[in-house]
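Q: My labmate handed me this sequence with no annotations at all. I'd like to see what the chain might look like in three dimensions before we decide whether it's worth expressing. Could you predict it?
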Amino acid sequence: MIMDFHFLRPWWLLAVVAAVLLVWLLDRQTDMRARWRNLIAPGLLDHLLIDQVATRGLRPVHLIAALLALSAIAAAGPTWEKERPPFVEDRAPLAIAIDLGPTMDATDITPTRLERAKLKVQDIMERRKGARTALFAYAGSAHMVLPLTDDASLIATYLAALSPALMPVEGKNTAKALQMIETALAGETAPGTILFMTDGVDRPSFPAFSGYKGRNDLMVLGIGTAEGGPVKTGNGEYLTDAGGARVQARMDLDALKALQSASSTEVATVTLDDADVDWIVHRIQSAYTQKTDAGLQRWRDAGWYLTIPIALLVMLTFRRGHKIHWLGAVLLLSLPLGLAPGQASAADFADAWFTPDQQGKRAFERGDYASAADHFADPAWRGAALYRAGRYQDAIDAFAQSTDAASYYNQGNALMQIDKTEDAIAAYRQALKQRPAWPEAEANLKLAERRKKEKDDLEEEQQQEDNGETPDQIQFDDKGKKGKEGQVKGANQTAEMWMRNIQVSPAQLLARKFAIEASGDKPQ
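A: Here is what I predict for the chain of 524 residues:
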């Protein structure tokens, strides 16, 4: 922190020199001995001077000089840390892998470990509104449930369908899940976070974590207790061993501690409150901030902290003996507000002491985005506040007041929220035109182009359905009888569209999908 200390506007520090010169000049001017020594003999001068003893203590000039010096330092903009950009968490991709082994149905964590994991995922989604999240499931095999998407309702639908009964291969292979997720995130230009929710990591998978060289941050949230609990089965009974006794599944806490020691993986255990969710969300944001382009960040101006000692020094200038006594300070504060002393409201006080942007920043940091948008004069920050408040069209209008690359980038983000993908693509391209090779803009441009293609494909498919060109039924040959090869006319579908359109329950769809992937077949 000390190494990062510097001034944003160092030329203002010249005013500190001016404050020192002011004291020196006034001291010289008031030094009667220095003024008369060349005109009167020294022996006679000692008897003529009344103030032979030099004046001691603080004088008004020292107070004025201190005010000048503090004001100069504040205006110079002292800083030692960077502030997080307003859209950091919107760009940080997250892949969540949920363990669907049978022990995840243990009841030591109510209602079960798996259900508690689902609740934690929903809490994380709520904290990261608008951010992209991918969902994976694993046991002895690993499978993608959903690719990166910002559709919270779609994630909630497939999240609710997850259960150990869906998994085609028994066991636990965390390394395979890590490999699959890493492959799925390989096309992302921005670094992300991979979060495992499990009651233990199998030790054969440790080398995959300790030797991990990827750019994504690895996290594990352990779910369960060391004491363990009985495991429910699909029919509502409890899992028993060969002797008929109930299986008491314990969380492998030792394995989690060993994994944390053997790798750079961040490990934590589930909590009853939101402390674990806060830790996860904060870690996602901080890891992304550390790995992204430093040009997106700006230094936090700490000069405004000095306004407090400056205000105290100003109050001292209204002492008795000065031109304006202390009551004048109250009157001066009251006159600009148009109020009598004691009648100023908190808002009027804020207007007197803080600029609109400073008031907006305070409201923004409190999460009061609507109030922040009303205060901000800076169009970029006003747009950010409007975006957070869900007023996307107003945010677009605010961002449009500037024509730099960041403005076009932010317009693209807001346009994506109101599903104007074509306009968003144009905005991202304009941002890249002004700032080539911008990773975040390139990533969002690809996302916008992919979403536009999906919309176009869906419209084309609906058109074909209206023309009677789609098949009446789609069947999978999972018994090895391939039949005759043929072609079915229809639009090319993405995996997400395929899962949306098949008229089966999410659980049935995932079970079939996992079984096909485990057997080595892929849907055509």
